[in-house]
Amino acid sequence: MRDLGAEPTLQGIFSTNRRPLMVSANTDFGYDSKIEGGVIVSRADAAINWIRTNSMWPMPMGLACCAIELMAVGGARFDIARFGAEVMRFSPRQADCMIVAGTVTYKMAPQVRRIYDQMAAPKWVIAMGACASSGGMYRSYATLQGVDRIVPVDVYVSGCPPRPEALLDALMKLQDKVRREPSARRLLSA
Ligand code: SF4
Question: Within the chain, how many helices (H) and strands (E) appear?
């Protein structure tokens, strides 16, 4: 019978006088009690990307019906806070992930681009739904045929409308992308 009362504590896992109880295949962080003592070794890229992936502040660019699904991810049922992205900012200077949710008209396009330009780097864009990704069903003179004509899109979400889970999936894909970015090199060469 397994002893359920013997769960390892954080202090036990990282204690300096014995080997770690948990072994991880994660190469971003290294720890060996015999070599490093109480020090965890990592790469600058891993540390920077870890911070960035878990603190994305969205710029909610709700332009049509998809915005309702965008609002739903903030509720308890979908709970975008699990990904550290619940802080919707309506100031572009405090946001780093623009979520374009809805139909982008030619009239609105310059404003979308201006808000994108006002966001501080690094910044990312999610095109949510068929309209934002490709113009959707609106093959008309008034509709931009995809927001990627005015801003660089990192992740596209299909559907009309996409479900809130699809947006969370896109957010996780964006986090995976950010984890692979050479952030330290870009910071030093900027
Ligand atoms: S993709 Fe569908 S739900 Fe989303 S903005 Fe376009 S028409 Fe509305």
Answer: 7, 6
